[in-house]
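Shipment paperwork, digital attachment
Item: protein structure file
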Amino acid sequence: MPKYLDIANQLRDQILSGQLIVGSRLPSIREASARYDAGINTIRRVYEQLEDWRLVNVKPKSGYFVSQARLHTKEPPTSEPSSGKACVVRTSIPVRLNASVSNGPKPTLGPAVQSPELMPMTEINKLITKTSKHYPERCHSYAAPPGSPELRQTIAARMSEIGVRVTAEEIIITSGAKEAVYLSIKAAAPPGSIVVVESPAYYALLEVLSSLHLKAIEVASDAVSGLNLEQLEHTLSKYDVAAVALCSNYSNPLGYTMSDDKKKALYEIIQRHDVMLIEDDVYGDLCFCPPRPKAIKSFDEEGRVLYCGSFSKTISPGLRLGWAIAGKLAERVELLKLVVNQTTAMLPQLVVADFLASGAYDRHLRSIRSRLAQQCSDAIQSIEKHFPESVKISAPTGGHVLWIELPKEVDAMDLYEQALEYEIQIAPGPIFSATGGFRNYMRINTGFPWTAELDKQVQILAELIENQCHPVLNTE
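Attachment content:
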């Protein structure tokens, strides 16, 4: 075996085993040359091989960084929606799941929430005190629906970094991303119309569709590349669809990120069929290793993509700050915002505007990305250790959720109820489907540092799964 390949295999094993976590920097070429007693050109070939394996990427003037660690090759298969027809959406368990979020910052495998340790609480609390003193009247006054000019200007500048050319006047501040998605879908889809969603889809999106009396058609997706564009094209050709709604980067629950080529192709499809696209990009900033992926909105020159973002996953869920870039429907979304709740609170807007403008936000992202990567890696290793060997797990490169295919014998709804008896929460697969599919799937949250307590929860889940696969017969 050539020496470069021998060294490359050693580093690959360290990455795949989790010794080198996503986002960590590899030794410089000179350092590696000394460490492995190899020439400079040999080490260059080593790093080129790791790039070919898509395990590292290079950042100019910074070095080589671990980009992903696929600890397994058994990812969930492409979904097969049970019906290609439009159906009415019904939801129930998500209400119970969301209610548990108010129970405090206890580590959980269920709701997709993060540990307070990952939030810049100290800095934000200082800014709250400073801002309320400097702008006492503004902080306690109504504002126009678009929101704080300072925050909108800062968001516009950040959007340009991911290829979205937008002015501050085109941004509407909302109370979290869910309100942005709600307003966008309401503006784009009249009651009774059809919205295409990925399968599986984020259950909060399905809740929105249900509340607006809309029908959903599910389109197959997979945990690596996302939406099946061929099936999407067929669906748009066959049905009168008002809009398509999806999560483009580190999707919840699948965890995929579409390539730029696929994002462009998707935009061209909706353009051909003259439909609107609601893009939920709340996880985009939580890439394990930069660069941050582009938005589908970056290919939009007609205003047909309604982009929804949020700071709930990166700064604080309690501040309830999101935004919408509504394109050609901006006036309607702004009017709906006015009708629904007048405006978003001004104090959080001024605080976050200051936090972003100071550069503190970028420093914060750099500090939490590697931690999220480590938490994801730890969760995967725990699941692979305790769960049956046949289980398939997604391998996201950002965000903090895992999508898991369980053995065919397992009913995730029963597993959900059984786990509650042990005060363990999961998100069962059927809540991510308008048709109740994915009976043997579940989503796991990795938003908390992995502890012995969480590992024990996984172990208990494994025992419950085993009991469903091999029930003990009552001989009495």
